[in-house]
Amino acid sequence: MPELNHDLPWTALPPSLTPLVTPHLPAVAQELMDAASHDVPVYAAPLEGSLREEIRLGVEAALNRFLSLAGTDRPALREEDRRIYEGLGRAEVHQGRPMDALFAAYRSGARTTLRSLSRVAVDAGFEASVLIALTESVFAYIEELSAVSAQGYAAEQSDRAGERDRLRDTVADMIIRGHGDEESVRTAASAAGWSLPERVVMVTLAADQHTGLRSRLGESVLLTSRPGDLVAVVPEPSSATGRRQLERVLAGRGAVVGPARHWRAAPDSLRLAVTARDLLSREQPEAQEPLWVTDHILALVLQTERSLLEDLATQRLAPLDTLRPGQQERLHATLLSWLKHHGHRAEMAAELGIHEQTVGYRINQLREIFGEDLNDPRTRFELELVLRANGR
Predict the structure, then answer these.
(1) Is the pLDDT of residue 2 over 60?
(2) 3-state class of 108 per DSSP?
(3) Which of 64, 194, 264, 266 has the most CB within a 10 Å radius?
(4) Helices 128-177 and 182-191 sit at what angle, rounded to 10 degrees?
(5) Contact between 134 and 118 (Cβ < 8 Å)
(6) Is 357 left (phi over 0), alpha (psi -120 to 50) or beta?
């Protein structure tokens, strides 16, 4: 008898075994299906249903292929065989079953096949070495079937993940651009397996911040890339805890979070996030917590139309132009403090670090310079606006 090849153990099987076993194959196939139905209950219904005859013929074909290997150095599976078993793996994904079920069915089939074929071999008078080769061959064959099916399972999962990511990108693009009616967006979201929230916050991040972000954000968030940045569509945090959780995920990534909007107004949230990113300078943004637009509304308003604010400052602060620069700075600070504290001298003195009498002296100066304008609510508002905008 040839020496046993553990890679191709069927080379040690005598070809004379094949014609002896072939007549028993229908019974072996039936026994194998009955055992699988018992050992793996999830397959009980399919094995007893309308596909039973088709499955039986498939089992017989697999057994015939196995027996045809006896005494040869051919690989376990041909290309057409590999497609079949890869298809079985893909089918498990379609059925929503874990790969363990198919592996269990293969193991059950291996035990049943070995038991049945060994019985025939013993009855035919083959020696123990043939039974050893038969055992090695059956399990090597089943191992190959399992490996190919596992490849099919993994490939189908990968294909589905890729398609799912593509669909999620499509939904994100529709929301970001504000394209599509409500029915179209909801249909796309459903196809992508994403639950469309009523309100969202839009987040912009640098393009190089994608590492590990998708998994940390979770399935409720859409993450997509655009030229120059990443954009996340995030359900509006429903509590302070939800906000803190999002902040932990975004920490150190230079993220800017737009204000909450209905999902149909998401482009406005993103526009404001991008505006805040571009206008509000941040030193070492990668080391900071995310910037929330709602925490910097006034700063954004003041930064948006700088030229108009400068015109307003020139107009409203013109009465101070005749003073020396040092006097101007002192009175700018005093005026802003007066506006902020509604003229309360004790609070002004504490903020400015001067005596209350000095505060009174400066206020009198301001009243002499600005006159009745300081009694006008609109003028006071505009003065505070320009003084705050200029960092005075």
Answers:
(1) no
(2) helix
(3) 266
(4) 160
(5) yes
(6) alpha
Residue 3 is predicted with a pLDDT of 55
Tell me the CA distances in angstroms from 363 to 325, 344, 369, one per residue in order.
18, 11, 10
Rounded-to-integer distance, Cα 116 and Cα 106, Å: 15
pLDDT one-digit tens code per residue, 347-366: 999 999 999 999 999 999 99
Among candidate residues 370, 322, 330, the one with its CA nearest the CA of residue 354: 330
Query: How large a percentage of the chain has pLDDT more than 70?
Result: 94
- pLDDT tens digit string along 55-91? 788 888 899 999 999 999 999 999 998 998 898 888 8
| pLDDT for res 136 | 93
Residue 44: the pLDDT is 80
- Asked whether 62 and 88 are in contact (CB, 8 A), the reply is no
- Residue 59: closest CA among 92, 37, 90: 37
Query: pLDDT category, 310, cuts 50, 70, 90?
Result: confident
Q: Are 160 and 181 in contact (CB under 8 A)?
A: no
In three-state secondary structure terms, 261 is strand
Q: What is the pTM of this model?
A: 0.53
| DSSP symbol at 280 | S
Q: What is the mean pLDDT of residues 144-150?
A: 92
Torsion of CA 293, 294, 299, 302, to 10 degrees: 100
Mean pLDDT for all residues in the chain: 87
Q: Which residue has the higher pLDDT, 5 or 322?
A: 322
Rg (CA), the chain: 38
Compute the distance between CA of residue 84 and CA of residue 149 in angstroms, rounded to an integer.
9
Count other C-beta atoms under 10 Å from residue 68's C-beta: 14
Which of 222, 227, 279, 284 lies closest to 253, judged by CA?
Answer: 284
C-beta atoms surrounding 325 within 10 Å = 7
Q: Say whether 87 sits in a helix, a strand or coil.
A: helix
Q: Burial of 258 by CB count in 10 Å (0-12 exposed, 13-18 middle, 19+ buried)?
A: buried
Could you give the residue ranges of the DSSP H alpha helices within the chain? 17-21, 25-39, 44-48, 52-68, 79-94, 99-123, 128-177, 182-191, 213-217, 240-250, 266-279, 297-304, 306-316, 325-340, 345-352, 356-370, 377-389
- Cα–Cα distance measured from residue 99 to residue 150, given in angstroms and rounded to the nearest whole number: 7
| Distance between CA atoms of residues 251 and 258, nearest Å | 16
pLDDT(34) > 70:
yes
